[in-house]
Amino acid sequence: MQLTKPAIQTICLAMALVAATTAFAGTGGDTFDSVWITLTDWMQGTLGRILIGLMILTGIGAGVLRQSLLPFVTGVGGGIGLYAAPDVIESIMTATVPAAAAVVDVLNAVPVGM
Predict the structure, then answer these.
(1) For a Cys staple, 59 with which of 35, 47, 69, 72, CB 3.0–4.6 Å?
(2) What backbone phi and psi angles, to 5 degrees, belong to 98?
(3) CA angle at residue 84 from 79 to 85, to 5 degrees?
């Protein structure tokens, strides 16, 4: 019996789905945890607030010179981005896909002879 290319692809896909395990992002040890905590404290602490204030003041100054509000808006946006960046990064790196985990559990429960 000779297998066609689509049949081989289907078999490979099925094997990959059965052999797949759940992936959890950001579970690779705690070597740099202290660095991440320090950076987060800087961005969301007093240093971050000082930098955000300087961004806004620079935006106001550039806005006065250019007679436009866009530099001020850019300064505010940069400040918001600086303050929110640790939370965004943390939520991305600790995200899991519960639907994929459920699919893997169901596929692992399927009898081999089926």
Answers:
(1) 72
(2) -65, -30
(3) 100
